[in-house]
Fold this protein.
Amino acid sequence: MSDDAPKTTPDGDDDRRSSDPRSRDRERSAADEASTEDPRPDAPEDDGATDDDPQPRVPDDVRKYDRFQKMDGAQYDRANEFLRDRTYITAREWAIARLCADFRTETGVEMTKIGENLPELVPFMTDTYTPQAVNQARASFEEKVRKAGATFLYGAMSDFFTAEELDEVMYETTEVAKFLLEVEGVDLSVEEELEAEDRISAVMREVRESSEQLRHEGTECPHCGEEIAADD
């Protein structure tokens, strides 16, 4: 046998197969099929959830809460400006005080739930709050209500206002309070509004009459000189 005869080696077949286009296509197809198989037997199945699905972590009572739907699209600054012009409270204190009243359980206020879901609960609130921040806003609201109440009651009892002027003050403050309730979703009929106004006016008349007795008790009547008793 001549030494010049072509020699075949084991690698020779591989070289020929690698140069065959059809062979390369078959190899790539087999590799693609293998790559589609999940090597992890415990891989989680697709649950069909999409980005449009509601977040499962949002509690049901939060999703159903609709107190401030009339404020949808409103900005915090606008709501805060309205309240600042008419009350002592801020929009933050108003919203959180309302939520603390609505999310109260037998064990207390759900401050963690309120803070974590604040943007979902109130349209004009954009940030989440810690439970401590929620509690601070509620405490600030309560303090301002007490101070405003003391200021108003002193004004009513100190004879600074006539009966007519006091009725006018009560009418203005009642209108603001009713508006805030309506924004929260409370529907008041005309009869209910009139009844509430009459009851408030009656109470304030009693306050004014009682305050007159307190102011003049133990003093002399400027007309007859007799001492004025508490029941006079």
The chain is about 60% helix and 0% strand. The radius of gyration is 38 Å. The CA atoms of residues 80 and 91 lie 5 Å apart. The first helix runs from residue 10 to 19.
